[in-house]
Specification:
The structure holds two protein chains of two kinds. By secondary structure, chain A is mostly helical. Chain A is built from eleven helices and no strands. Chain A folds into two domains: 31 residues; 220 residues, MetI-like (MetI-like fold, Orthogonal Bundle), CATH 1.10.3720. The longest helix of chain B has 16 residues. The chains are: A mainly alpha, B alpha/beta.
Chain lengths: 258, 246
C-alpha cells in the first residue's frame, strides 16, 4: 500500500511544481510587468501577507458555496423523487425543466441581485440554481434505471411501493447521486463567484474585481489561488462523502485492482 | 402443495407466446420444463410469479389448499440478483427486510445464518456480494429463496451462468435442500432436467405447447453416468432439435 501511495501523492505535486516553474520562467524571460502577470513568488508573498484579508473573504464565499450546495442538492433530490413517484408531475414538469436549461443561469444574476439584494442570499440562490439541474438529472436517471430484476425480485418478496423505493431504488441510485454530487461540488463555486461579480461588498469574487480595478494583480492572483484551494478542498470532501455513500463500489474497485 | 394451472395465456407485443396451456405441479416434487431460448419458458415462470410486466396474461390457477397462489411463490433467476450494497446475510434476509422496514427478527436472523451454513457460506455472512465468486453468489440466492419458505419455488435457469463443475455442485445442493418442496424449474439443459426432475415436460411450438410428461425413476440428484439418463438425454435433445431455430 505505502509504495503505491507515494507516487500517487508525488505525481500531482511534481506536476504543480513544474507548472509553477514554467510560470516563473515565463515571467523572467519576457520581463512582463507585475501589473500584467506577477510571478508565482510574488503571488505567494502576497498570499501570505494578505492571509487575514483573503480568509475573511474566503469565509463568505465558502459559506455561499456550501449553502448553495446544500440547497441545490436537497431541492434536486426532492425534485427527482417527486418526478419518479408521480407520473403526472413528470409529464408536466419534465419538459419545462429541460427547456429551462436553455436559459443561461448567469443571465439571471442581475435579476437575482434586484430581488434578493446585494447580500449572501442572491449568491446562494445563484449557486443553488446552477447545480439544481445536474443534481436533479443525475438523481432522476439513477432512480429510473434500477435494474428491473431487482424490482421483480422485490415484488416476489412482497415489497410494497414504499419499500421498493426506499430499499431498492434509492440505494441503487446512490452511485448516480454521487456523480451528481461531484458535478455540483465543482460547479457551485462558479455560481457563487459570478454572483459576487455582478454585485457584492464581500467575497473572493468581489476581492478579485476590486484588486483588478486597483491594478493589484498579485492580490487578484492570490484570491484566485484561495478560490482554487477552496474549490479543490470542497471537491475532495464531497468525493470522500460520495465514496462513503457507496462503499460497495470502492470494494469492487479494490477487488479489481488486486 | 399441489398446483393446477389451466388456460394459461400470455401474449407479448401482439405475439401469442402460449394459449390454453395446462400444467400440473405435483406437491413436493420437481417439475422441469425444457425448451429452447425464446419459446416462452421464462414467460411461464413470470406469469406464476406475477412479474410478467409488459405482457398480457391470464390463467386459472388452483392450489390444493384452496388459497390463491399470488404472493406465495419464490423466484430464483439466472442472475443471482444480490443487492450489492447489502451484506450476504442481509441479502438472505431481503424478504423480511422489505416487509418489515429493514428489521428482521432475531429468529429470522438465526434462520438466515443456519441457511447460509447449509449452503456452505457460514463464514461469509458479513461480506459484500462483490467479494464472492459466481457460484457462491448463486448459493446466497438459494439461501434467500429457502428463507422465503413458500409453497411453490420457481427457478428460471438458476445454474446456467455457472461453470460446469459449479453447476453440478449447485444442482446437488439444491436437490438436497429443496427435497420435498414443490419446484418448477425451467432449463434448456436436458441433462440438468434429468438429474433433478420428478417429471419433465418439453415446451415447444408457436404458440407453445407442453409435451406429455416424462418421469425418470430414482432418487434425485441422479448420477451423471446413468445409462438410462444418458439415453433419455439423447432423445430429449433430438426432440428439441426438431423444432426450427428461433
Amino acid at each position: 500500500m505505502t509504495p503505491a501511495l507515494l507516487p500517487r501523492l508525488l505525481r500531482p505535486l511534481l506536476i504543480l511544481l513544474g507548472i509553477t516553474l514554467a510560470w516563473q520562467l515565463i515571467v523572467w524571460i519576457t520581463g512582463v510587468p507585475r501589473f500584467i502577470l506577477p510571478g508565482p513568488l510574488a503571488v505567494g508573498e502576497t498570499f501570505l501577507n494578505q492571509l487575514p484579508l483573503l480568509s475573511r473573504h474566503a469565509l463568505v464565499t465558502g459559506a455561499e458555496i456550501l449553502l448553495g450546495l446544500l440547497l441545490g442538492v436537497l431541492l434536486g433530490l426532492l425534485s427527482a423523487l417527486s418526478l419518479v413517484t408521480w407520473g403526472s408531475l413528470r409529464r408536466w414538469l419534465l419538459p419545462l425543466l429541460v427547456v429551462s436549461q436553455a436559459i443561461p443561469v448567469f443571465a439571471l444574476a442581475p435579476l437575482l441581485m434586484l430581488w434578493l439584494g446585494y447580500g449572501m442570499a442572491s449568491k446562494v440562490a445563484m449557486a443553488t440554481l446552477i447545480i439544481y439541474f445536474p443534481v436533479t438529472a443525475a438523481c432522476f436517471d439513477g432512480l429510473r434505471q434500477t435494474p428491473t430484476g431487482y424490482l421483480q425480485l422485490a415484488r416476489t418478496l412482497g415489497a410494497g411501493r414504499r419499500a421498493q423505493l426506499l430499499q431498492i431504488r434509492l440505494p441503487a441510485a446512490l452511485p448516480a447521486f454521487g456523480s451528481g454530487l461531484r458535478v455540483a461540488a465543482s460547479v457551485a463555486p462558479i455560481g457563487a463567484v459570478v454572483g459576487e461579480w455582478v454585485g457584492s461588498s464581500t467575497g473572493l469574487g468581489y476581492l478579485m474585481l476590486n484588486a483588478n480595478a486597483r491594478m493589484q494583480i498579485d492580490l487578484l492572483f492570490a484570491a484566485l489561488l484561495m478560490l482554487a484551494l477552496l474549490a479543490v478542498a470542497l471537491y475532495f470532501l464531497v468525493d470522500a462523502l460520495a465514496r462513503r455513500l457507496t462503499p460497495w463500489l470502492s470494494e469492487t474497485f479494490n477487488h479489481d485492482a488486486q | 402443495m399441489e398446483i393446477q394451472i389451466d388456460n394459461a395465456r400470455l401474449s407479448w407485443q401482439g405475439h401469442r407466446v402460449f394459449d390454453g396451456l395446462s400444467l400440473h405441479l405435483p406437491g413436493g416434487q420437481w417439475t422441469c420444463v425444457l425448451g429452447q431460448s425464446g419459446v416462452g419458458k421464462s414467460s411461464l415462470i413470470q406469469l406464476l410469479c406475477g412479474i410478467a410486466d409488459r405482457a398480457t396474461v391470464s390463467a386459472e390457477i388452483r392450489c390444493s389448499d384452496g388459497l390463491p397462489l399470488r404472493g406465495r411463490v419464490a423466484w430464483m433467476a439466472q442472475q443471482d440478483l444480490l443487492l450489492p450494497w447489502l451484506s450476504v446475510l442481509d441479502n438472505v434476509l431481503l424478504g423480511p427486510r422489505l416487509q418489515q422496514q429493514r428489521r428482521a427478527s432475531a429468529e429470522q436472523q438465526e434462520q438466515a445464518r443456519y441457511l447460509l451454513s447449509q449452503v456452505g457460506l457460514a463464514d461469509h455472512a458479513d461480506r459484500l456480494p462483490a467479494t464472492l465468486s459466481g457460484g457462491q453468489r448463486q448459493r446466497v440466492a438459494l439461501a434467500r429463496t429457502l428463507l422465503q419458505d413458500t409453497p411453490l419455488i420457481c427457478m428460471d435457469e438458476p445454474f446456467s451462468a455457472l461453470d460446469a463443475v459449479n453447476r453440478i455442485r449447485l444442482q446437488d445442493l439444491s436437490a438436497q435442500l429443496l427435497h420435498d418442496r414443490t419446484v418448477l424449474m425451467i432449463t434448456h439443459d436436458p441433462l440438468e432436467a434429468l438429474r433433478l426432475a420428478d417429471q419433465i415436460l418439453v415446451l415447444q411450438g408457436s404458440p407453445a405447447r407442453l409435451s406429455a410428461p416424462l418421469r425418470p425413476a430414482g432418487a434425485t440428484p441422479r448420477a451423471l453416468d446413468d445409462l438410462q439418463i444418458l439415453q433419455w438425454q439423447g432423445e430429449l435433445l433430438r426432440q428439441l432439435a426438431e423444432e426450427p431455430e428461433r
